[in-house]
Amino acid sequence: MPPVSKRTESLGTEHAFVVLAEVNRLIAEGKPVISFAIGQPDYVTPGNIIAAAKKAMDDGQTGYTASAGIPELREAVAAYLSRTRHLDISADSVTVAGGAKPFIMYTIAAVTDHGQGHEVLYPSPGFPIYESQITACGAVPVALPLLEREAFSFDLETLRELLSPRTRLLILNSPHNPTGRTLSRQELEAIAELLRPYPDLWIFSDEVYSQMVHDGEFASIASVPGMQERTVILDGASKSYAMTGWRLGYAANETLAPHFSTWITNTESCASSISQWAGVEALTGPQDDHRNMMESFSRRRNLILEGLNSLEGIDALRPGGAFYVWPNVSELCRMVGAANAEELRKRWLHEAGVAVLADQQFGTPNAGEGHFLRFSYATSEENIAAGLERLTGWIAKAKQ
User: Fold this and answer.
1) Cβ contacts of residue 248 below 8 Å, gap of 6+?
2) pTM of the predicted model, to two decimals?
3) Where are the extended beta strands (E) located within the chain?
4) For the chain, how long is the longest CA-to-CA vector?
5) What is the pLDDT of residue 13?
């Protein structure tokens, strides 16, 4: 059998989908599992968006579109980003793809060269596809630790030490997956100040959870003076409009937009025309369902945070956004004899019927930081209460 490439062998994965498959298998076997593992809204796409997609099909909008996206959606995205980021963004700066995830690869490929030692700084813990795509594109991954003692914010001195003339890209993610940390305007201004001496450095600002800020207001580094030109703003419909399966994401940067379009031509040709028309309705149509969904995540955040912090051996910081909480379970691991968070995760799944993700599924755990799990509270308040009740019983039994 001919071998596969080393690039393919080294490609990482998104463990949420691995655990999801495991959860579905257990459920199919008749074992009840309450899942906090997958970052997917538990809502159905709002009816007006579904109706817009049906209309697009009835109107014959079922063929290829321009690689950059239909003009109507690019204009709607530009208006949305301009309004929410307090910027002037033109439709020509916007590119549409089959989900937000492809833009990770498109951006790294657009600003780094294979084998040239170009470095990409990425948050750790963080979305695992960042590191995977950095390596696959032939750049050098440089982890930027997010530490509990810093409330999972960036340590500016560490960032200063890691920056060099080799740095071509800094990946930011706020609100952050997996910790739920949001970066304030003041923090972003301080980061921007460190980047100014590096004219060859781009910023990839992953803002797919921008509509899920529970405390304060969302801030984008692109709105800091001098940063818009070098920042790729990433957003999408999946999280905000319960459209994960529609695969619709968008990015904005005036210089890179035509290059992104070329990459799309070379890979996916274009995003689904039907999804694009649905996206127009999502951004320009009634927002009542969207607002109700966002408000529900804030309520759920409060419920799960209070519940986790009431459990022995668990300590969770208050997440400012997204729908994730990242509790420290080091003491609980010690109490029940679990070597690490991954062992605890497996025991919870098979002994308590509760599914979560472990810290090692978001990169190599930072030294001295203890053990963490990620809970997604994109599930009902009833499931949250039932899951916490199961964990309460499991902890009491495991201690014995």
Assistant:
1) 96, 98, 99, 236, 237, 238, 271, 272, 275, 276, 278, 279
2) 0.95
3) 34-35, 94-97, 119-124, 140-145, 167-173, 202-206, 231-236, 249-252, 324-325, 354-355, 357-358, 373-376
4) 65
5) 77
Please tell me the number of Cα atoms within 13 Å of 356 on its side-chain side: 30
* Angle (CA) 299 289 82, round 5°: 95
CATH 3.40.640.10 in the chain, residues? Answer: 61-284
Does the 61-284 domain belong in CATH 3.40.50.980? no
Identify the CATH class of 6-44+289-399: alpha beta
User: Residue by residue, what is the 3-state secondary structure of 291-348?
Assistant: HHHHHHHHHHHHHHHHHHHCCCCCECCCCCECCEECCECHHHHHHHCCCCHHHHHHHH
What's the one-letter identity of residue 98?
G
Q: Which helix (H) or strand (E) holds 55?
A: helix 47-58
pLDDT beneath 50, residues of the chain: none
State the Cα angle at 218 between 213 and 224, rounded to 5°. Answer: 160
Spatial CA neighbour of 106 closest among 239, 257, 273? 257
- Distance (Å, whole) CA 98 – CA 3: 30
Please report the pLDDT score of residue 202 as a whole number: 98
| Cβ within 8 Å of residue 42, ≥6 positions away | 378, 379, 380
Specify the pLDDT at position 22: 85
